[in-house]
């Protein structure tokens, strides 16, 4: 039997002096290996295509993390710090609607977690790593890249939730690499995990027949050494197969 095809959103970045559509490979590898899927990259080029043109050709979509932030006007706010990626905003947010209309799974990691909340009517906050915050969700600015993912904190998985059942536990430690987080959770989303300061770290829902699951942390970071991360991607694989 053929494997499900997971669409993975691309970011607009500059490689050398040229614009490029990029996906960090760890997202694709983790999904393909542990969810046991094939994958296709979705370009964030709204001037050349729409989400609706490609959604029907995918069995599910993964909205990944990224250095960029969702533009604040997308959730009826002002200000905010870049970098921004308006092309990705347009394709990713509209892809959420197209996939759920088709009854197909939508998954999010970090920025993708924030995008789905915004697409469904929620808002973001931009103060989760500021001085004075009760729990810093990002390592200090001077921290080397690899060491950023060593910045961790505990999260509590909701009783009876999808993640608690899949991981077989209620308390885990996760890496924390984000400056923004959920402000107002979109209506209909069920909290799957929270940080000690109360910040929502994961949520799920079902829109019609379309399952939705997203986490704020990075399970794709070295999943070969993390059983919880492997369990997360295996859960995605089961959801893509309708199990």
Q: Can you describe this structure?
A:
With 243 residues, the chain is α/β, with parallel strands linked by helices. The protein is built from seven helices and 13 strands. It has one domain (5-240): Class I glutamine amidotransferase (GATase) domain (Rossmann fold, 3-Layer(aba) Sandwich), CATH 3.40.50. Helix content is 26%, strand content 26%. The strands form three sheets. Strands 4-1-5-6-13-12-11-8-9 form a nine-stranded mixed beta sheet, with helices on both faces. Strands 2-3 form a two-stranded antiparallel sheet. A two-stranded antiparallel ribbon has the order 7-10. The protein starts with a strand and ends with a helix.
């Amino acid at each position: 039997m053929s494997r499900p095809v997971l669409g993975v959103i691309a970011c607009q970045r500059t490689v050398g002096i040229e614009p490029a559509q990029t996906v960090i490979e760890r997202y694709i590898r983790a999904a393909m290996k542990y969810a046991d899927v094939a994958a296709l990259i979705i370009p964030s080029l709204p001037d050349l295509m729409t989400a609706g043109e490609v959604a029907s050709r995918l069995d599910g979509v993964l909205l990944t993390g990224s250095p960029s932030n969702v533009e604040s006007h997308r959730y009826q706010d002002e200000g905010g710090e870049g970098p921004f990626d308006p092309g990705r905003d347009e394709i990713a947010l509209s892809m959420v609607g197209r996939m759920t209309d088709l009854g197909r799974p939508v998954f999010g990691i970090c920025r993708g977690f924030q995008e789905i909340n915004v697409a469904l009517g929620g808002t973001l906050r931009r103060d989760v790593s500021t001085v004075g915050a009760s729990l810093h969700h990002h390592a200090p600015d001077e921290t080397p890249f690899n060491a950023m993912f060593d910045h961790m904190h505990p999260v509590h998985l909701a009783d009876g939730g999808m993640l608690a059942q899949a991981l077989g536990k209620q308390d885990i430690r996760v890496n924390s690499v984000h400056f923004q987080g959920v402000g107002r959770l979109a209506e209909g989303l069920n909290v799957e995990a929270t940080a000690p300061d109360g910040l929502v770290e994961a949520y799920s829902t079902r829109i019609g027949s379309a399952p939705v699951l997203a986490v704020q942390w990075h399970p794709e970071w070295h999943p070969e050494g993390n059983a919880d991360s492997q369990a997360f991607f295996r859960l995605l694989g089961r959801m893509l197969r309708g199990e």
